[in-house]
Known about the structure:
Chain A is mainly alpha-helical. Chain A is 72% helix and 1% strand. Chain A has one domain (9-303): Farnesyl Diphosphate Synthase (Orthogonal Bundle), CATH 1.10.600. Chains A and B meet through helix 2, helix 6, helix 7 and helix 8 of A and helix 2, helix 6, helix 7 and helix 8 of B.
Amino acid sequence: MNTPPAAGGLGAAAAMEALRVAVDEALDRALPPEADWPATIHRAVRYSLFAGGKRIRPALVLAAGEAVGGAREDLMPLACAVELVHTYSLVHDDLPAMDDDDLRRGKPTSHKVFGEAIAILAGDALLTRAFHLMAEVPEGWDATRVLRRVRAAAILGEACGTTGLIGGQVTDLESEGREVEAAALERLHRAKTGALLSACVRGGAILGGAGEEELERLSGYASAIGLAFQVVDDVLDATEDAEHLGKTAGKDEAAKKATYVTLHGLERARGMAAALLREALAAVSPLGPRGELLGAIARLVVDRRS
Amino acid sequence: MNTPPAAGGLGAAAAMEALRVAVDEALDRALPPEADWPATIHRAVRYSLFAGGKRIRPALVLAAGEAVGGAREDLMPLACAVELVHTYSLVHDDLPAMDDDDLRRGKPTSHKVFGEAIAILAGDALLTRAFHLMAEVPEGWDATRVLRRVRAAAILGEACGTTGLIGGQVTDLESEGREVEAAALERLHRAKTGALLSACVRGGAILGGAGEEELERLSGYASAIGLAFQVVDDVLDATEDAEHLGKTAGKDEAAKKATYVTLHGLERARGMAAALLREALAAVSPLGPRGELLGAIARLVVDRRS
Lengths: 306, 306
């Protein structure tokens, strides 16, 4: 009695949609208009940023921060920054010199539309704007708020670096066509996918003023969904067609990439995703209703079709 | 009487060399060892960063900050960050999809040694580390110090963005083989070269605790040397051979690029560089001995041979 309504089912879907709209508005405000000089780069940046992403990473920032009592206004710059970073990594990973992908979210990739030079620069611009945004602290903020912002920026910086996003992509490129053991595959994905997802949750929690215990609990949640995310990616690549996926399907097998599916088989991979979801839900259940949106995002990560 | 010795002549050269050594040590500490996982990217990052750069940008940060009374310790993270950013921009600009250069500072460019994918990621890693470094604020700093760091990071972010470094490179690519007017050329170079040089001086001044008047004076200095830098670059490209320059010479004319030399002729371009040097020296002369290192750097920018 008198407990807040659960954020499961339709409530969670509506809550996620509201977050997505708020994030898209904030991203729009954070970027120069397309017509501003030099227009080409602003068009390219917006083309990839507003290509129908589900905004799972910003939602994690907002959900984690609000779960510990943070204000939306304090959380939104990081929510935007993680989506800018995520989009930069997609634009650069899709380049001919890297994964050479023609389709992303059902649309031609940036270099297909704008050419390689502009695609490289658009990625650079997205990454730069992410950190610039974190440094744009309003006048008159007190020391605690500023310090939380700086700590969140440092967490983001580490997640994007050579032991995070970039290191994961390097290792991914280097492991194509080679035998990869389960432990090495997990390390790769903890860097390539897990580090940024974890930065969303931990950064949001710090901006929201989380205590040590809450931070540890949320870190466990982040770690579980980070790995679940990649396992589900591999399952989708092996089972979905390009139309559902919005990108070229079956590429992993064609490229002889080690994935959770090629390594463990489809059924065991699905079982791993389910176990990781239970782990994530268990980590946030002590937060009660405040943690329900985080639970809904975990379900979304595991149940998604693309 | 009793004024400190002028930092001109040999004194300036020794002071610059001392700064260069200190910056190289700090850069070395700021990066993971080459052998750390994933080794390829750390090798590529260090290959380009320690390729014999003159460290003019870090010297500007330190000279500007110390001219207004700043401590070396407070200035060094930005000094490292601007060199990381500068190196990232060279690595990406040299890529086949951009300026397609084989030589840089007399050595094969990153993509020639490590391949395109790693060169793109090495640039990404250099840029990421720059902002990460700015966000690594030691525990226990007071609010003023933290806030200065954040303001300097915001200045760096703007200089690297689509109205700075990236915008300049976009416009540079787009103006190849086209007629470019003098005003458009100046705008291009204020973005491509001037914005970062200006961020070095203004960022260093802010970290050093400059007042409004000092900041304005130093901004004038920064603006003059920023433009001088590009004019001298164009003069060198038109007059030096590849051996002296450490990169392919005469490329601008071959690519039908608009430069200060193709637009104004060699002699007028040289005259512009000299006038900008006088402007820079005049801006810092009221600082007295404290501004002499800045004066020496301005002379170095204009008198350099590569």
